[in-house]
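Workshop exercise sheet. Pairs work together: one partner reads the sequence aloud, the other fills in the structure field after running the prediction. Swap roles for the next sheet.
Pair: D.N. / O.F.
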Amino acid sequence: MALATPSRTAALLTVLLTLLLGAAHPAAPHEDPPLRRTVSAWLPYWDQEAAYLNALRHADQLHTVSPFWYETKAADRIAPHPGAGERLVIDGLHRAGIDVVPTVMETLRPGALAAIVTDPARRAAHADALLATAVSRDYDGLDLDYESHATTGNAEYAAVRDGYAALVTDVCARLHALAKTCVVTVMPKTATTGRIWDYATFGKVADRVRIMGYNLHWAGGTPGPLSTPRWYDEVLRTATALIPPERIELGLPAYGWDWPAAGTATDAGATAHVTWKEAEALRRAHRVPYRLDPASSTPRFTYTAGAHTREVWYQDARGVAGHLPVLRRHGITRTALWALNFEDPAIWPVLAQGAPRA
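Structure field:
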């Protein structure tokens, strides 16, 4: 047989040593990279403590929380809601790696918002007030959620649209100069709705445009789903033609409406807002079987209250799972949840299905 040469002996020793080291230190099992944080959510001030703790439980998916903390009262006055600016919430979210971008909303009397955004002096004063709010705490930016101008009449809508776009452009530029994030929340835009919103401008100047993907049927209308895959397809087809998809967050509902059933008497009571938790508790209390409407991928049920029939449409994890394929088709990976502690807990793993790996 052949004799071992020095070089062959060294090679054999190297192989033996590698095998021994491999046995002593086995290769680590393959692990998938973590999911990117692709979810933002609003935090309702009226349920602040529970919503805050809920956010911490889902910190691995949340990149931003927007506490619903401020309300515009006039061009130069932005008032805090109860609990606004609470240090425990801000610091706790930051420690969890979540940005805090509070929402400024408004419910001004008809025409008041239009008067602010179409007057250069008032608009500038309002931008100053918004920036003062942004620097009043250790905030990472602002979310502008202004909605009362959405019903502006035909004669002046173009001026209001341009004035609001000018306000958003100014505020975003000033936030960016402070290394803060600018978010603008808007209603859905389709071929026949939402023309007050200048999506093209928002897509250029804002870091994120949150489209409220709900209230296809709303409190003031007839019973029906808050959203449908077909409606989302139209909304996102319109949006992605004007806004880069990576800047869009589609707002998903974690709530529903409890209507008097269509055709009910006028004394049947008003339409009521219900969170997922409240809707499910109501369904179970009345022992109604769970039903997912196949056309809209939305849970619904009816029940009897006194002499009247009522109809509830809401959203849960199964419904959202039926809507996510539409988002994927349009390249939308970011979602926004209205609102923390309203939701079906099973929605979080469903939302993870739309999140790419880091």
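Discussion prompt: Residues 1-28 have pLDDT under 50 and may be disordered. What would you look at next?
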